[in-house]
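Example 451.
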Amino acid sequence: MVEPIYRSTRSEREQWIREAGYNLFNLRSEQVYIDLLTDSGTGAMSDNQWAAIMTGDESYAGSSSFFRLKETVKKLFGFDYFLPTHQGRAAENVLFSVLVKEGDLVPGNSHFDTTKGHIEFRRATAIDCTISESFEPGILHPFKGNIDLVQLKKVLDTHPKDRIPFIILTLTCNSSGGQPVSMQNIREVKALAEQYGIPLLFDSARFAENAWFISRREAGYEAKTIKEIVFEMYSYADGMTMSSKKDGIVNIGGFIATKHKDWYDQACTYNIMFEGFVTYGGMAGRDMNALAVGLEEASETAYLESRIGQVQYLGAQLSGYGIEVQQPFGGHAIFVNARHFLPHVPKEEFIAQTLCIELYLEAGIRGVEVGTLMADRDPESRENRYPKLEFMRLALPRRVYTNLHLDVVAAALKNVFDRRNTITSGYRILEEAPILRHFTVKLEPIGERPV
Ligand SMILES: *Cc1c(COP(=O)(O)O)cnc(C)c1O
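Predicted structure in complex with pyridoxal-5'-phosphate:
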């Protein structure tokens, strides 16, 4: 499937971004030339996925599409219990309703924003135990999504076991730059979890990309297929939440899978309340069919080579221009270090957001802020939380853009880079929601905007 894209003028974009309250989530898609906001639900489906759509079974209960998907999940991940949900955060909502209580702690590697949101919404705390190398964009560590075992052990040692419902590993770690977790780290986290009697959960949106990095970077996995690596990864987990919009290569969907019958039994009730009956959970039968095919396709080497190769292609161009990005390049996106890019914008004025707006004004390209807006306020003090890094994320939709589009992105960002010293001020907040504010925030510029 192809669609035309519209190349706008700078004055059109100035008007549109003003009308959008300087929040790129408020733009209409026609106002965007190349859309790197997210790789979520934006992939192009294959011929086989479209064919599967045609044979979807829309029965309310016991649909054959459900069983096809359930069997695929069992084959790829090894879990017996499976619940579809309408997307990843819904899987979090349902499973965390079972597992997370007020006052709990959930240690993990840089939790994804909705994951953290669902933890904090329940008055529990997410504790980031990612290795420190992850917060140094220039350091070339092969697995920057890894957990620091000393830090994790300290959390486990200093809190009662019944306050820690599970440890969560995000594969790949989105918030730290699409960075993978090694099999060794997974194994070590599992050993520690077992020692303390705490379950291990995988936030699995990019499980296949994680496996690809293991196959390329970890000794002993060179000759294994991606599917073999995925199966081993999940042999260490008690359960998973999945956003199917990523490595499921479908436009909508998610699921929970686990080996624990008691988790499943309790989750069923919440699924019926929030999502739908247990054999569809908010998904159409045809979409479950497309997902079953997508999960298989996403875990094929040839696909991953081209997919991740594209991300590396963009990353290499940008760093060639002297633009500092998270290294090594991640699986689904390039994370531009906004503090390095815009050294004159004060942190109170949302550095990464300022960069995203500049790139949009330059060429109609939409990235997303992974910085102070997304880090949100401290739930207690209500002060801004300043994250260790301010990123502009350029996420690549799967099977959508060509490298020529990426050449345009790189050239546009270089233009902004060349005039970076003229950008000395950012934005202030006009309106914000109490939680997950970055999706709806309204901003206004501070000071004169140079063109
Ligand atoms: C996207 C994502 C989620 C949430 O999934 P949605 O389908 O967007 O609700 C959770 N965790 C990670 C790591 C993600 O990338």
